[in-house]
Amino acid sequence: MASKRKGKEIEASGSGASKKQSTVRNHGIQFKDPEQRNRYKSLISRTIFPCRYPDVNVMDRLAIEEHVIRLLNNLGLVEMLKPIRGFENFTHEFLSSISLTKDRSKTDNPDYRVAFRLLNVDYEMSFDALCSKLGLANAGYIHDSWDQTLRPADYDPVVFWKSITGLNQYNSRSNMASNIHNPVLRYHQRVMACTIWGRKEVGMMRTNELFMLWAMLYNHLLTFVINCLIILFQLLKRNRMIKVI
């Protein structure tokens, strides 16, 4: 029988009657194990904020919408960043159950796999399958700020940073995104910082964001899901909410 659970919209979230509090807080989730329950309890103590970018009205006023969409399309991100409703219960269930299994047998085209739960159903699939379901591109370069061997041979962050800012040095901890001359690229940095990487502090130009700007401008495909999930797993692992095998 199909599940009758309904999504709880983030904008409408609030406290209900006290007698229903237990049901509301669990979001109808049937926990697979104590680990998922503990991760869920940690997640619900945090606030979920709706994404601010990209904003169609702002882009229209700045007359940059066409250029922003064209660059997003170069990375296959147009569908992902379209305005959609967010559901608190599905978000908590997904993040409380997600796990990553790394393929340590090979370095070329590794078969990493992701497992998670939605609507109390277990899912396990490859990155390719996940990309297909999400409508995301998953072919091309991988960027890892800690492993420079994964960088494309023609990508130099210092040279690229100078080309868009005029500055001779690049440091992800001190260089401000406001130094970027082109307003379309500055807006893209905000889109990535607030939406993809989910950072609180968005003023600095991080290495992943700089690389994605380069890929957008020069129309280089990225293994985008791997890049995003690596960041997601790092954040969850830092807060002891992720299982990596």
What is the strand and helix layout of this fold?
Blueprint: H1 21-26, H2 34-44, H3 56-62, H4 65-74, H5 88-97, E1 99-101, E2 113-118, E3 121-126, H6 127-134, H7 157-165, H8 183-196, H9 207-217, H10 224-238, E4 243-244
Parallel strand pairs: 1-4
Antiparallel strand pairs: 1-2, 2-3
| Number of beta strands | 4
Instruction: Characterize the largest beta sheet: strand count, sense, and whether it forms a barrel.
Output: 4 strands, mixed
Structural class: alpha+beta
* CA distance, first residue to last residue: 33 Å
Radius of gyration: 20 Å
Number of domains: 1
List the helices and strands in order.
Answer: HHHHHEEEHHHHHE
Number of helices: 10
Q: Beta-sheet strand percentage?
A: 5-15%
Q: Which percent bin holds the helix content?
A: 40-55%
Low-confidence stretches: 8-24
Q: Would you tell me the overall average pLDDT?
A: 76
Oligomer: single chain
Biggest sheet strand line-up: 3-2-1-4
Please tell me what the overall shape is.
Answer: globular
Descriptive overview:
- The chain is an alpha+beta fold and 245 residues long.
- It has one domain.
- The protein contains ten helices and four strands.
- It has helices spanning 21-26, 34-44, 56-62, 65-74, 88-97, 127-134, 157-165, 183-196, 207-217, 224-238, and strands at residues 99-101, 113-118, 121-126, 243-244.
- The protein has a four-stranded mixed beta sheet with strand order 3-2-1-4.
- Mean pLDDT is 76; it is low at 8-24.
